Amino acid sequence: MHLKFLSRNWLLFFMMNCGHLENGRYGMEAVSPASALRAGDAFLKQLHNTVVSPCVLHGVEGYRVVPFVDKPNRNHYDSRGGSAVKYLIMHYTVCDFWHTMHLFTEDKDSNRVSAHFVITQEEAAAVAIGREAVPAGRLIQLVPDEQRAWHAGVSNWKNDVNLNPCSLGIEHVNQGGELDSKHFYPFNKDQIHTSGKISHNIVNQYTIDPVHVLGHSDIAPGRKSDPGPLFPWGALYHNHQVGAWLDTEEIGNPDMIKKKYGLRGFPCPTKSDRGALLSMLNSYGYYRDKKDKEGHLDAKIIAAYKSHFSANQRPDLCDAVIRENDMYWAWALNVKYKQ
Predict the structure, then answer these.
(1) What are 16-44's pLDDT values in tens digits?
(2) Which stretches make up the N-acetylmuramoyl-L-alanine amidase domain (predicted)?
């Protein structure tokens, strides 16, 4: 439903059923009553001036943030402009759940950010400020599927530019990291289980190509590093049939790749070659700006690719050094997915 059709009366009616008004330090605050929350989710009652409603999101139990009618700037989204969903983009937040929700619903008129979905990590209670513990794997929708969230920013994949209008974004609450430091935080298994379940249903509903299930760093290398090398892309593929990956018998086995998919495109590389690797990555979808004559971003592209594929779960190898395994994965992905 578009916001212009919502009214204050509708919101009050909704809150009578899904939330209520409560006196707070900022005046009358909208909160989600415990009676409207599932067992173990009382922490959601502590969201500041935000009402959530229990619902099922792509086959997964979760919550939907009620639109902010009286403060439209807190709705961080707008129209897709007729664009169809063709990408699913994975992120991490680099902050805790409470800060994430604040950032994605902040009342301001510019530089707003958001994602369609947020999936919690486990966070301990903060007794000193009366804040309850946050369980891992809880799913919250802040932006309706049919609306454009502001999560991808300046981004490219193949011939598509600025992917916000044609993508859905999932934020995983996680402390994050930077490829230069090689230090990242692991993801909670319950969080990834929820991510895999909803992602599986999303890619099936929207017929999203496996190659179009990407990380923020894939579509904005050098500018973004999320979801980082510890994001378990292999688990999403093997356990939930989400995204592009190699089967166990395909890893390091060029004969199996040729047998299953035929020999097409690039020949199987036999040595490390920076130019050949970049050509394969460009063919796969990684964007190389033709204006970058000196190749200043090439190392960032290689690091982003390695974070997702050939050095996933190995932050220490997510660098600009090209190894035989990096060459093999780039070749095998191109052959398998017919790029």
Answers:
(1) 344 444 433 333 345 566 568 999 999 99
(2) 74-228
